[in-house]
Amino acid sequence: MTSSTAIHIVRPSQFDAGTAQTPGSERCAAIGPALGIPSAIWGGLFEVAPGSRTGIHHHGEQETIAYVLSGSCEVRWGEKSESVARAKAGDFIHVPAFLPHMEINPSTQEPFRWVVVRSTPTPIVINLPDDIWP
Fold first, then answer.
1. Nearest-CA neighbor of 76 among 134, 118, 17, 115?
2. Alpha-carbon distance 69 to 63, whole Å?
3. Which residues make Cβ contacts (< 8 Å) with residue 78, sequence separation at least 6?
4. Comparing 134 with 127, which gets the higher pLDDT?
5. What is the pLDDT, as a whole number, of residue 6?
6. What are 37-77's pLDDT values in tens digits?
7. Residue 18: HSE in the Cβ half-sphere, 13 Å Cα cutoff
C-alpha cells in the first residue's frame, strides 16, 4: 500500500503554519504536500483574532470552501468593498477564484475559526495593497 492509498490522520501538533499567510490572520495546513500527503486539494484552519481584520487578498485560480467552526465574521468584497456577508458558527462560505476580499472579526472577545478546503493542493494567497479600496 502506498501513502496515496492510505488514510491519514493529522493531529493539531502536526499542522504546518509555514503555509501562505495574509496579515491579520493565521493559516495552518492540515492536508497538503508540505505534510507529505499527496492530495488534489488543500485543507487547513484559518483564524482571525478578536477585533482584527485581514488584509485584502485573493486566492488566484483557487475556489475556497470554508466551514465556520467558531465565532462570527464579516466578509467584504467588490470593487470598493461594497458587498458584505456575515457568517457564524455552523455556516459554510464559498469564495470564488480571483475574488479580492477581506475577513473581519467583529467580536472583541473571541477569534473566529474556519475549516478551509481549497481546490488545488498548495494554497495560493495574493495579498493586495490596502489602498485598492477607498
1. 134
2. 19
3. none
4. 127
5. 87
6. 989 999 999 999 999 999 999 999 999 999 999 999 999 99
7. 6
